[in-house]
Amino acid sequence: MNPVELARPEIRALQPYSSARMEARGGGSVLLNANESPWPPFACDRDWNRYPEPQPAALVARLAGLYGVGNDQLLVGRGSDEGIDLLVRAFCAADAILVSSPTFGMYAVCARVQGVEVIDAPLRGDFSLDVDAVLAAVTPAVKLVFVCAPNNPSGAGVPRAAILRLTEALAGKALVVVGEAYVEFIDPEGECRSLADRIGAIPNLVVLRTLSKAWALAGIRMGALLADARVIALLRKLMPPYPLPTPCIEIALRALADAGVCAMRERVATIRRERLRVSDALARCCCVRAVLPSQANFLGVRFEDAGRACEALRDAGVIVRDVRRYPMLGDALRVTLGSPDQNDRVLAVLRSLDGARTVSLAAARAGLPA
Ligand SMILES: Cc1ncc(COP(=O)(O)O)c(C=O)c1O
């Protein structure tokens, strides 16, 4: 099955823009084909006066090596957000996407911006993916099924077997897009590993990866979309000619070098240790109702009074994400795992809330004003 057959016919037929860089692939030392400045902006040894490579070969090769896919099965873009947007624009016109709420909001936003319908097959009460509900909700209009694994904002991992059931059942009907922004943080011995190793074998599987989380590069806006080579070729037609700024390409290559890989693994190990420590400590706070099991670099935390906890944290200079507007999370905040010191600050504020609550309960029992 050719997954591109699911794309919008006008995109499949589109004659893409041919950029000066692409046309000049043969080389040459005097570049007078892109209306660039012949001089750099200030004295420097960088060619910042030149447009960057549309898909920088060294970066594509390094990322493809790290993710275990072919160079032609990977597209580098400005974060995984760009991948989501490209997919919706390429595959959906008078069509639909399917999401399982509560989940990452950009799937629905990218669809709605394009006038594309969003169908919801909610997660189960324990935030696990309801594969049967997803399959029952898929209509012929659904071209993209988004699965966030681990899920944001709950943090729940998604077993590979569940996603593979979807790709199999939807072969020839829809692409299954797996948002793996947090996959580096999963417990390695679990069943929720990345599906990058199935790219190539499963034509309707797409995996979104990012350098914004474990790789600590949110500021340079860099992410990768892994898919069947025919899907990558199609999406390249939609991309602006020079999406990636040269300094960002240089920084990414530096962070992805062998030393950077070791540093990333150390950061991830620390976050995983903190995930355990902070979950345990939070579970012992009286103001906390429950800590959701997380495979990511954040914790979904249910509070007796989430508004009060959010305010107390803000008063102490700690900003967390208020996720009370999401279905099933009306009493919850999402707390990113920071450095051990930052996490201690969160715990100190919440323990002080516990202290205040103990005092007011004691006052109530003694018939005194709180
Ligand atoms: C599930 C998920 N996907 C994608 C993104 C965006 O990633 P990027 O920075 O690569 O655009 C986020 C950001 O929080 C996210 O939670």
Q: Can you characterise this structure?
A:
There is one protein chain. This protein is α/β, with parallel strands linked by helices and 370 residues long. Helix content is 38%, strand content 14%. The chain has twelve helices and eleven strands. Strands 1-7-6-5-4-2-3 form a seven-stranded mixed sheet, sandwiched between helices. The mean pLDDT is 95. The structure holds pyridoxal-5'-phosphate (PLP). Pyridoxal-5'-phosphate binds at residues 79-81, 104, 148, 152, 179, 181, 210, 212, 218, 223.
Order of helices and strands: HHHEHEHEHEHEEEHHHEEHEEH
Query: If you compute it from the alpha carbons, what radius of gyration comes out, rounded to the nearest whole angstrom?
Result: 23 Å
The strand line-up of the biggest sheet is: 1-7-6-5-4-2-3
Number of strands: 11
Q: Classify the secondary structure makeup into a structural class.
A: alpha/beta
Distance between the termini: 68 Å
Separate helix tally: 12
